[in-house]
Amino acid sequence: MTLKDIHGQPLCSEAERMLDYVRTRSAALDASGIRERVRAAAHELEKLLAEVPESEVRLRPAPNKWTIAEIVDHIAQTQIRAAEELRHLFAARCPPGPPVYEALRSGAPAWAPWQELLDGLRSANHELIELLASAPSAAEQSAVTVRTILVVNYRLQDGATGVQIFPADLDWRQYALLQRLHLLDHRTQVKNVRAALARAAAAS
User: Which pLDDT tens digit goes with each residue over 133-148?
Assistant: First the structure.
């Protein structure tokens, strides 16, 4: 079946490339290889966030853009839900309930101490990485999949950036490797937010 986005449009080339990467790389890696890549991406993000001064974490780089505190909360909330869904996939069960939606967040960034948000992220990452240590082998893997909402940025003809959102059904290997991409994408987002804040400060 040909995948389409939430508006019924064909997938952009960036979305097709991401899906191809997730499918081919997950098939080429064993469970320990997937776990190590997720662990490395989580470590890179946590190291970057440890360098962010608390004075920056609730500054909004532009209207309607997330703060660093909101990014951290989103990743923590998503990782915990991803771990729940992986537990079901490991047991050959289809995860119940709605999928993990693309903008999942709590209200914590508005009031929670920065250190508490960081601790929540580290705890959620640890939960997911530890869970991957109990992943089934290739011989034990079932055909059960999880409905996943994917978000891809793509370049418009005028040079601006568009966003395409689409659902896909992924097996546990594909789903776990997608968490690596999610971590890396938000690592880049944090860097971009800090750069925007620095430009704004220099211009003021």
Answer: 999 887 677 889 999 9
Q: Each residue of 31-72: pLDDT tens digit?
A: 999 999 999 999 999 999 999 999 999 999 999 999 999 999
Nearest to 176, CA basis, from 78, 82, 44, 45:
82
Which H helix or E strand runs over 45? helix 31-50
Cα–Cα distances (Å) from 103 to 37, 100, 122, 142, 176, in that order, read 23, 9, 19, 29, 18
Distance CA 161, CA 155 (A): 5
The C-alpha atoms of residue 191 and residue 11 are separated, in whole angstroms, by 27
Q: Rounded to whole angstroms, how far apart are CA atoms 157 and 143? A: 39
13-203, what's its fold?
Answer: Four Helix Bundle (Hemerythrin (Met), subunit A) (1.20.120)
Question: Residues 4, 11: contact at Cβ < 8 Å?
Answer: yes
Reported pTM? 0.93
CB 10 within 8 A of CB 2: yes
